[in-house]
Specification:
two-stranded antiparallel sheet; 2 strands; globular
């Protein structure tokens, strides 16, 4: 996955704009992790929180999988990092490596893009068992942008605490 950030189109249609904002936020997370060692990526840099940059990448792997593959595509699969569907497991990056975490995340992002691109429209709906309601692809795209934006704020603070780097 490229960590080059490309801004959204200034006059794109809704789907193109949502797609671009989501990719912008995906690239932001990757940029926040660039240039760090596995140990630095695992560092829980904002005590008492146990959150780490690598934990965020692992969490977003689960989020991508859940919303696009499990909900929208209706796949009967488990999570990547938990056999018991416990979303909190992904945050524990103890022993995790950049290579493992990013390979899993990039694979899920690729699947998410494939599923979104093949969907007829943003009005496609699917059942979300957790909410016990149908949700639209439009809602999923908005939710994913929100999820990345929120966690990229966490990544800003974590990265600065690790090595002082700010920006992106």
């Amino acid at each position: 996955m490229t960590s080059e950030r490309i801004g959204p189109p200034l006059r794109g249609d809704e789907r193109e704009t949502l797609r671009a904002f989501l990719d912008f936020h995906r690239a932001t997370l990757a940029l926040k992790c660039e240039g760090l060692t596995d140990e630095q990526l695992r560092r829980q840099a904002s005590p008492p929180s146990t959150l780490s940059l690598l934990g965020l990448v692992r969490h977003m792997t689960e989020v991508e999988r859940t919303w696009f593959r499990i909900v929208i595509n209706g796949e009967a699969i488990g999570l990547v990092h938990s056999d018991s569907m416990d979303y909190q497991v992904a945050y524990d990056a103890t022993g995790a490596t950049r290579d493992e975490a990013f390979a899993a995340w990039e694979a899920e992002v690729a699947e998410s893009r494939r599923i979104e691109e093949k969907a007829e429209s943003l009005d496609v709906t699917a059942y979300n068992a957790r909410w016990e309601e149908d949700v639209s692809l439009r809602l999923v795209m908005h939710h994913m942008i929100h999820e990345y934006a929120r966690h990229n704020g966490h990544a800003d603070l974590l990265r600065e605490a690790v090595d002082g780097a700010t920006g992106v």
